[in-house]
Structures are given as structure tokens and as C-alpha cells.
Specification:
- The complex is a heterodimer of chains A (115) and B (245).
- With 115 residues, chain A is mainly α.
- Chain A folds into 2 domains: 83 residues, no CATH class; 31 residues, no CATH class.
- Helix content of chain A is 54%, strand content 7%.
- In chain A, strands 1-2 form a two-stranded antiparallel ribbon.
- In chain A, strand 1 and strand 2 form a beta hairpin.
- Chain B is mainly alpha-helical.
- Chain B has one domain.
- Classes of the chains: A mainly alpha (115), B mainly alpha (245).
- Chains A and B meet through helix 1, helix 2, helix 3 and helix 4 of A and helix 5, helix 6, helix 7, helix 8 and helix 10 of B.
């Protein structure tokens, strides 16, 4: 299943680690492996993917990618620690994406959270 | 090993390094609710959580609230607050309102909690950036003396939208939001501690995108990866963290 994002067709199932390839994004497979290594526990794997990333996309791209990993790791904590809902303009996209990639948050009642 | 370009901090965008330096340096100063020493201690716990054995065991457990034990922690912070810092860092996807209510029962009020969340989140961002690039983590600053202001925002925050009260941007536009009406919930989330919110905004603009660019599909604001690449990476990071706000 796919969705339009940033003017390009993106296979959202790749976000959940299903399927193969880069989800329709240039160097997508490498980008996904970079995310996995960045959040993983292996310094060796991170070093290896980092070198591949820099060789393929360049140093500036590596810095910008590290910045994205950093700020989204930060924003996730803010969102999860405060229980904020999703902003209204994004709700339809969020629900569609949740269904596709199979991710849902559950609140303490066991029901899917509203945002 | 990194190739030559990234060996020097000066090769990294100056807006990134400036925002990160500010995030670390400001930890030393008394905040709204915590002293400088406590703020630095919160940041130190956020950093220590990544290697915490109890957190690792909990992360593997079916329920995150069943594993007994204590974190090896600074005596400056009460145990429930240390636990809060560690959980926010290591298992954010399984935080619940019931857990937060438990913290409230332990005496942690919403204002100090939000300041703590801001410190944890931005410290984590700085450390994550440097760890991902294979760079050493910055030293935490020496705390400055002085008392926290113990004054909340000038405009009342209202409960009901999130687990914590939020200042409505229409009511706190100039006092809290610096006359910027564009305030998605991730910004409002820290509105009980406006200085933490402002710091997060600066981190967001420099590390992700300015808000105007966020709203324009395809606009990567001159970053070296295009918008599709950027959003794919962001989505995967959020997914792996158990959230896709």
C-alpha cells in the first residue's frame, strides 16, 4: 500500500519494516537502515551504516539525517510524556497511515488512543 | 571511522551547533521549578538511562510497571522523578495517564514535570545527534547557584486536551508564544514551562525544518536530503520509538 508524501509515491509499509527496498524514496533502503542502526544497540552496525550513508549521500546529508533522528527522538518523548493529541490537519493522514503500518497507541483502558 | 569532513565540529551547520550549545548551557541556570543543580542532574539521568540495567529489563517485560528495582541514580533527585526520567528516555511508548497520575500522587506537580520533560527531551536530542555521528557527548555544565522562579506562565493553562494542562495559543499568544500563532500540540505540550518550549522550537527549526517549510510539501529548506527522504527517516524513527505523532 502506498501514499502520496512530499509529491512522491511512498510505500508506507516500509516504515513498519515490511516489504523490501526503499519504499519508493531515493536511497530509501539506506535511510531506513540508518534509522534502525541509529536507534539500535550496536555501535559497530551504526558505524558501518554511517560510513555507507556518507559515501552514498555525502557528509552534509549525514549531518542532516542525524539531526532528524535527534529531533524526532526528542519530539516522540514530548508527545508520549504529555499525551497530546494529533493536530487536526494531520488526523486523517495519521489514521490512514496507522492502518497501513499497523501501529496504534493504546491508553490505559486498552482502547486505541484518540491521538 | 568518520571521514575527514565530520571530524571537526566546525564542519557541522552552525545553526545546529549553536542550538545544541544553548540547550546544554541553559541547563546550568535555575529554571522555573528546578535549581541549576537539579536541572543538570535531570540531564545526567537522561544520559545514564541508556545504559540502565533496570530500564533494559523493563523494556523486555510484558508490562513496564511490574519489574522491581531501583535505578543507580543521583541523590539530588527523588526516586520517582529519576524513574520518570528513565521511563521517558527508554520506554516512552508505554507511558500512560495512570502512570502520570501516580507521579502526581508522589507530589510532582505539572509545572515541574513539564520542565523535566523539556530537559530530558532536548538533552536526548543533543546526545542522539552526537552519538549517531560518532562524536563524544558534550560535558554537562557546572550548575549555577540561585533559586528557581517558581512562577508559572502568565496565562492560565487549561486541562482536558492532553494529560497536562496546555496554554491555548489564542489566550497566551504574546505572553507564552511570542506572538507566533503557529503552535502545534508538540509545542503547546511544554507551554507550562515556556522557556523549555522556546528551546524546543529552536531545536526543531534547526534540526528538522522551519514551520513554514513543514507546511509546504516538497520543501526541504535547503537540507542535503530531500523532503521524501527526510520524512521517511522521521517516520521510521517515530515508529521505532513506538509513536508516530
Amino acid at each position: 500500500m502506498s501514499s502520496e508524501a512530499a509529491g512522491e509515491e511512498v510505500d508506507l509499509e516500509r516504515i513498519a519494516g515490511r516489504g523490501e527496498g526503499g519504499g519508493g524514496v531515493r536511497h530509501g533502503d539506506l535511510i531506513l537502515r540508518f534509522a534502525d542502526a541509529a536507534l539500535g544497540d550496536s555501535a559497530e552496525e551504526l558505524g558501518s551504516v554511517r560510513r555507507e550513508f556518507e559515501a552514498s549521500l555525502g557528509s552534509e546529508a549525514l549531518v542532516d539525517a542525524a539531526a532528524i533522528v535527534a529531533i524526532f527522538s526528542c519530539n516522540v518523548r514530548v508527545a508520549d510524556a504529555t499525551g497530546i493529541p494529533l493536530d487536526e490537519p494531520n488526523q486523517d493522514v495519521r489514521l490512514e497511515t496507522a492502518e497501513i503500518i499497523g501501529i496504534e497507541r493504546f491508553d490505559e483502558t486498552g482502547e486505541p488512543a484518540s491521538g | 571511522m568518520l571521514r575527514g569532513l565530520l571530524r571537526e565540529v566546525s564542519d557541522i551547520r552552525t545553526d545546529l551547533t549553536a542550538a545544541q550549545r544553548t540547550s546544554i548551557e541553559r541547563l546550568a541556570r535555575p529554571g522555573m521549578w528546578w535549581t541549576g543543580a537539579e536541572r543538570v542532574a535531570i540531564a545526567a539521568e537522561a544520559r545514564a538511562a541508556r545504559a540502565c540495567g533496570l530500564c533494559r529489563d523493563r523494556k523486555q517485560a510484558l508490562s513496564p510497571y511490574g519489574s522491581p528495582g531501583e535505578h543507580a541514580a543521583t541523590p539530588l533527585l527523588a526516586a520517582p522523578y529519576v524513574d520518570a526520567v528513565h521511563r521517558i528516555v527508554t520506554d516512552p511508548g508505554r507511558l500512560t495517564l495512570a502512570w502520570l497520575d501516580g507521579l502526581r500522587d508522589e507530589g510532582l506537580e505539572d509545572g515541574p514535570y513539564i520542565e523535566l520533560v523539556g530537559i530530558v527531551a532536548t538533552t536526548l536530542a543533543v546526545d542522539t545527534f552526537r552519538r549517531v555521528l560518532g562524536m563524544p557527548l558534550p560535558d554537562l555544565p557546572e550548575p549555577q547557584s540561585g533559586e528557581p522562579s517558581r512562577e508559572g506562565p502568565a496565562v492560565a493553562a487549561r486541562p482536558g486536551t492532553a494529560w497536562v494542562p496546555l496554554v491555548d495559543p489564542r489566550e497566551g499568544l504574546s505572553e507564552v508564544y511570542d506572538d507566533n500563532p503557529i503552535a502545534p500540540y508538540v509545542r503547546q505540550a511544554l507551554s507550562l514551562a515556556p522557556d523549555e518550549m522556546r528551546n524546543l522550537i529552536e531545536m526543531e527549526i534547526t534540526h528538522y525544518l522551519p514551520l513554514e517549510a513543514m507546511r509546504r510539501p516538497g520543501d526541504a529548506a535547503g537540507r542535503a536530503i530531500d523532503r521524501s527522504q527526510l520524512e521517511l527517516l522521521a517516520a521510521r524513527v517515530s515508529y521505532l520509538n513506538g509513536c508516530f505523532y
